[in-house]
């Protein structure tokens, strides 16, 4: 019931952001922001309720993982929004949050018994850090999409729906940079805490499980992105495309590996 109410409130917030995107009425934007904040608070209560119901951190099923991913993205955006103002960023972020929650709504909510390997204090530490990293990297994906849409309008010299509603290319590039510089350290910390958990659970820090391997591939993609950005000056369009590619790798690591490449982590999602 709590998740259903949360889903509905996110849906209303997203509808308000879309309405603002079209109308550009500032009062609607303030309403949308308040609704998203309220949805984030209710989502927090939902996660706490799942914790009470399960008796352990709710990060071990596909439903819970996707739900926490959406929660992380919500609060990553709200924490960012308090420091910076990026025109209509909330519209794109709320749409992606709704996509994640829709996936979670279609997943089983049954409570499972934790396997021995998951009965560890490293579970909430590693999983929450990794998913919080995904939340910031997801915002980088949104900024990349916005950049490509705005650039397309400018190149065609036909200033349509997006041109007046999206920030400048420089603002979007700076936004992408911010999301990357916050998300990448968290991704690194998530891999490090995961290796300590692997040592406790399986006796070695790394044993090339498919999810471990793809986590490392994703890390190298973002490391290369940062390197090229600072050393070779890959900004703008290249940075936007790399953010989109990197996020696709994040999604494959989170979901694709679980369903296509079974391994020790298969039961996590």
What do you see in this structure?
- The chain has 8 helices and no strands.
- The protein is mainly α.
- The chain has one domain.
- It is globular.
Write the topology of this structure.
Elements: H1 2-23, H2 26-54, H3 62-81, H4 89-105, H5 122-156, H6 169-202, H7 210-230, H8 236-260
Helix pairs in contact: 1-2, 1-4, 2-3, 3-4, 3-5, 4-5, 5-6, 5-8, 6-7, 6-8, 7-8
The count of DSSP E runs of length 2 or more, i.e. the number of strands, is 0
Structural class: mainly alpha
How many separate helices?
Answer: 8
- By oligomeric state, this entry counts as single chain
Average pLDDT level: 85
The fraction of residues in strands falls at under 5%
In one word, what is the shape? globular
Largest sheet: none
Instruction: Measure the end-to-end span.
Output: 22 Å
In the predicted model, the low-confidence regions spanning at least 5 consecutive residues are none
Order of helices and strands: HHHHHHHH
- Helical proportion? over 70%
């Amino acid at each position: 019931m709590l998740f259903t109410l949360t889903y509905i409130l996110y849906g209303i917030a997203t509808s308000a952001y879309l309405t603002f995107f079209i109308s550009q009425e500032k009062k609607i934007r303030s309403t949308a922001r308040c609704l998203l904040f309220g949805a984030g608070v209710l989502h927090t209560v939902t996660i706490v309720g799942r914790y009470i119901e399960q008796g352990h951190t709710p990060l071990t099923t596909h439903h819970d993982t996707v739900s926490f991913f959406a929660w992380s993205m919500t609060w990553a955006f709200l924490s960012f929004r308090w420091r910076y103002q990026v025109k209509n960023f909330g519209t794109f972020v709320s749409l992606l949050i709704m996509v994640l929650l829709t996936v979670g709504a279609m997943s089983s909510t049954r409570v499972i018994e934790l396997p021995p390997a998951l009965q560890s204090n490293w579970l909430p530490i590693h999983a929450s850090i990794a998913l919080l990293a995904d939340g910031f990297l997801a915002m980088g994906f949104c900024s990349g999409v916005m950049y490509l849409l705005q650039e397309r309008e400018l190149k065609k010299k036909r200033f349509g729906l997006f041109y007046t509603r999206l920030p400048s290319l420089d603002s979007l590039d700076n936004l992408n940079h911010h999301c990357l510089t916050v998300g990448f350290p968290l991704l690194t910390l998530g891999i490090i805490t995961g290796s300590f958990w692997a040592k406790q659970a399986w006796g070695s820090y790394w044993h090339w499980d498919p999810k471990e391997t793809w986590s490392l591939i994703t890390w190298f993609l973002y490391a290369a992105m940062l390197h090229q950005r600072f050393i070779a000056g890959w900004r703008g369009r290249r940075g936007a495309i790399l953010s989109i590619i990197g996020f696709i790798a994040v999604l494959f690591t989170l979901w694709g590996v679980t369903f296509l490449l079974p391994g020790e982590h298969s039961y996590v999602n």
